[in-house]
Amino acid sequence: MQVSGPIKTVCGTPTYVAPEILAETGYGMEVDCWAVGIILYILLCGYPPFKSPDRNQEALFQLIQRGKFVYDTEYWSSISANAKNLIDHLLVVDRHKRMRADDILLHPWIMSVGQSKPIRNTEELKAALRTKYDTKIKEYTENQAP
What would the mean pLDDT of 28-47 be, rounded to a whole number? Predict the structure, then answer.
């Protein structure tokens, strides 16, 4: 399959679907970053950020399109502000303002999780990650060309 513009097929698991898919305005790789935000939210607390009390799919889709969610204190009080910040930047309704994959890799929560000691030269690491990301995007784009 060759992708020459925004995709317009409505698809996806209801809980994970990005607002632009529901709006049927066309979408690209930004939907994957939305899904990362949904998955991260679920991994950290055990339930999705958007849920309809009676499991009504239309109500769920309206919640997703509004993009309003909360961090219930009972489940989120022990979760770091950096983790919440990352989710806040992923679950953004406007896909143009949503954090991209290369930015996710450079987010402080990602950069610090699992590190036994602080990373000393973050600028060098950021440059290396950005170069790798740009290379992969170029490869992907070239493989999509006719």
Answer: 94
